[in-house]
């Protein structure tokens, strides 16, 4: 018996020109899966877009409410200041400090406005 026995012989095979046949069932399965998943994915994307837009609009509404409250507070303060500044007592005190006296006849000038044609 010989101690150097060859059990397998390797032969190089050139499969460059071999192409696989398309499986028609696999294509149909993939199209059915795509037809089932695509509408669900589109609905999820649309829902996410609407939800984000709703949240953003909520933030804008809240910002606007804050601004309205600040403006109302500012208006209230200005109305209080106007009432205080235009009170007769304040006007009289201001006139006394400036040594003002009531107007004499002829010092008052009345201006009338002519209608624009």
Outline the fold blueprint:
Elements: H1 24-85, H2 88-97
Shape: rod-shaped
What is the H-and-E element order? HH
Alpha carbon gyration radius: 46 Å
Helix percentage range: 55-70%
Provide the structure class.
mainly alpha
Sequence stretches where pLDDT stays below 50 over 5 or more residues? none
Helix run count: 2
Sheet-strand content, in percent, reads: under 5%
Tell me about the biggest sheet? none
Description:
The chain has helices at residues 24-85, 88-97. The protein is an all-alpha fold and 117 residues long. It has a domain at 24-96. The longest helix has 62 residues, at 24-85.
What keywords describe this structure?
single chain, mainly alpha, rod-shaped
Short description:
Helix content is 62%, strand content 0%. It has 117 residues and is mostly helical. It is rod-shaped, with a radius of gyration of 46 Å.
């Amino acid at each position: 018996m010989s101690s150097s026995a060859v059990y397998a012989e390797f032969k190089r095979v050139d499969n460059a020109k071999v192409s696989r046949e398309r499986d028609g069932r696999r294509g149909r399965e993939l199209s059915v899966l795509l037809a089932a998943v695509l509408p669900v994915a589109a609905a999820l994307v649309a829902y996410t877009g609407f939800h984000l837009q709703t949240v953003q609009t909520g933030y804008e509404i809240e910002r606007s409410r804050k601004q309205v409250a600040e403006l109302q507070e500012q208006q209230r303060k200005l109305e209080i200041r106007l009432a205080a500044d235009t009170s007769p007592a304040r006007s009289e005190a201001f006139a006394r400090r400036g040594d003002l006296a009531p107007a004499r006849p002829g010092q008052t000038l009345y201006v009338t406005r002519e209608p624009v044609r």
